[in-house]
Amino acid sequence: MSSLQPVRGTHDLIGEERRRFNHVVETARRIVSLYGFDEWSTPIFEDTRVFSRSLGDTSDVVSKEMYTFEDRGGESLTLRPEGTAAICRALVTNGLTQSLPQKVFYAGPMFRYERPQKGRYRQFHQIGAELLGAAEPLADAEIIAMGRDVLGALGIGDEVVLELNTLGDTASRDAWRTALITYFSDRRDDLSADSQTRLERNPLRILDSKAQQDRALVADAPTIDQFLTPEAQEFWDGLRRTLDVMGVPFRHNPRIVRGLDYYGHTAFEFVTERLGAQGTVLAGGRYDGLVAEMGGPATPAIGWAGGIERLSMLLAESPADPRPVAVIPMGADAQAAGLTVLQAIRAAGIRAETSYRGNMKRRMERANRMNATHAIVVGSDEIARGVVQVKDLDSGQQAEVAMDGVADFLRAGSAPKA
Ligand code: ATP
Ligand code: MG
């Protein structure tokens, strides 16, 4: 039997990596809660139609990236490739389209069959936010500002740029699409094979192509600006004005699209130079048509999703774990008293550990290895007198402390020094 390996494109999160990951999610939770967002969790797999209907069969995700399988009952299920469709399904099936707006945050694994590379996996993780039931550009500005605040709180605000575009309303987009088809049809033979397919099915997607040979053609392609209806123009102006008021800097990038039909008006990406080709850390847009695709009433909505792995890679350093206290019982007789002290320290909210075996020297070495702040030595002599020895491992100072006063002593010691 060949040796077992993790599945290609999957990875374990251990130690520093898991700490960074947690920091991203916890920071996002804290910031979105300031904006009044509530966290939802939806299942990791859904009826395949949740994604195939919503993402449309021309999207890369549906045409080649989905993990779809039949379960034992013959149902077609799909491991969720993204969160938005699932949140919209949940909005409809929980009857919440009558209680709008809903402000939703989520975090969890997503699955896409892609070519793995740095910052691109087959099981990856996203944080995401959806604001359901608000049609005003103020909602777009607010959710964008929230994304920026998450990045700021992670300490990477200066390393990402907000790129913003409008996809207009349906009439604007139809006129633009026609112009794009004319433009790219004249240059059809120079397009990548993928983009030739996109030309027939969804020409906007060509603008998002990562193929080098498409890039030059895309650079000169018509932009939507000249096709905007007065209403779409007004929305676009309103969004930019509101972002200015909120102090959110952005760069207009007319190449940014969201390839799916239900996206309109706002499209944006927070990008960095530091991750090579995988430079988009957080991306979103307005999708007023999606809830209706799920069988709900027409519901305006806007949201974003960010890749937790990519965000983790940008963090300068993960917040350090709190240092523990090591409890060291001397010999079998001190075991029970040692445990009592250990649990009392933990009950006081201080991280504490004990070794499972070894002599005093070994245990002391281990305390140093785990970077303990203190070693609490519990010996039979001391037990008889109701005390323990507390050794400060940084200063080397030792103190005799009443057994039931250890937690208080440690808390006082860990208070910030004047
Ligand atoms: P890309 O253009 O990089 O393929 P996308 O447009 O497919 O991204 P979205 O569906 O908008 O990505 O997902 C939002 C974010 O999720 C991305 O900006 C990225 O940070 C992250 N992401 C997407 N796919 C992956 C993946 N396979 N591995 C890791 N992170 C990913
Ligand atoms: Mg992709």
UniProtKB/TrEMBL annotation:
Compartments it resides in: Cytoplasm
InterPro entries, alphabetically?
A: aa-tRNA-synth_II (IPR006195), aa-tRNA-synth_II/BPL/LPL (IPR045864), Anticodon-bd (IPR004154), Anticodon-bd_dom_sf (IPR036621), His-tRNA-ligase (IPR015807), HisRS-like_core (IPR041715), HisRS/HisZ (IPR004516), HisRS_anticodon (IPR033656)
EC number(s) in its UniProt entry? 6.1.1.21
Question: Which residue ranges traverse the bilayer?
Answer: none
Q: Which UniProt keywords apply?
A: Aminoacyl-tRNA synthetase, ATP-binding, Cytoplasm, Ligase, Nucleotide-binding, Protein biosynthesis
- What catalytic activity does the UniProt entry give for this protein? tRNA(His) + L-histidine + ATP = L-histidyl-tRNA(His) + AMP + diphosphate + H(+)
**Which cellular components does GO assign to this protein?**
cytoplasm
Q: Which family does it belong to?
A: Belongs to the class-II aminoacyl-tRNA synthetase family.
- Would you tell me the protein name for this molecule? Histidine--tRNA ligase
Q: What is the lineage of its organism?
A: Bacteria, Pseudomonadati, Pseudomonadota, Alphaproteobacteria, Acetobacterales
**Gene for this chain:** hisS
